[in-house]
Design brief:
7 helices; 65% helix; Ferritin; mainly alpha
Length: 228
């Protein structure tokens, strides 16, 4: 017999099995990405240096991606929206895999996982063509103007993450979408900055994939947010 209100109570409870399953999938993809990164990064006589754009991108984008995984897992534990359940799973698994891939690059290149300089310093270096501007060149949202050591573009603050964890229902869904749109915009800017500063086939291949996939998700999340 179904007790009055039991359906509402079930909907209000987190779904630990879904969260654990998604977490395991993300972990496996992180490890799989590590293997892919080790296999695909060319072990050339002159790999990127520890202060190169490629190394800086690999380190900083790992940090950026892993926060996206955290936010995706957070909303997955509370949302009842089937679109967000699918989207959060896709974000968690794809970005965990890519983070592992970039860790694998550093291993093959013989570089430490930690940077010898403040985060995002690589963004201040000239582009391949010798120019000093960022991807768009107009300074509007230009990630190259980012001050090394300051929070990365689009990264959620600890207060915003705490707010997301405490929220529920539609408020949590809307907050997640707003935070993830900003997060993706920052990630796209970082990937575009790498494309300006590198001709490394492996690194630029992943950066182009990030730009394409995350821009598509930004457009989709804006539609979801407008409809909420």
């Amino acid at each position: 017999m179904t007790l009055p209100g039991s359906d509402d109570a079930a909907r209000a409870r987190p779904r630990p099995r879904l969260v654990v399953a998604a977490g395991l999938a993300a972990l496996l993809l992180l490890l799989g990405g590590l293997a892919i990164g080790r296999l695909t990064a060319p072990n050339t006589p002159l790999p990127p240096s520890t202060t190169s754009a490629e190394a800086g991108f690999a380190r900083d984008m790992q940090t950026h991606h892993l926060q996206a995984v955290e936010m995706a897992m957070t909303i997955r534990s509370t949302t009842e929206d089937p679109d967000l359940l699918t989207l959060s799973y896709d974000i968690a698994t794809s970005q965990a895999q890519q983070a592992g891939q970039m860790f694998g690059w550093l291993s093959v290149w013989g570089l430490p996982p930690a940077s010898p300089e403040p985060a995002m310093t690589w963004m201040t270096r000239p582009a391949v063509d010798g120019s000093t501007h960022g991807h768009d060149g107009d300074g509007d949202g230009d990630t190259a103007a980012h001050v090394p050591g300051e929070p990365m573009p689009g990264l959620a603050t600890s207060e915003q993450l705490a707010e997301l964890r405490a929220a529920d229902g539609g408020a949590a869904d809307e907050l997640f979408l707003a935070l993830m749109i900003a997060h993706h915009e920052g990630g796209v800017g970082m990937a575009e900055a790498l494309l300006d500063r590198s001709d490394n086939r492996v690194a630029t291949g992943l950066a182009r994939g990030i730009v394409n996939s995350q821009q598509g998700e930004i457009d989709y999340m804006r539609q979801l947010l407008a409809a909420s």
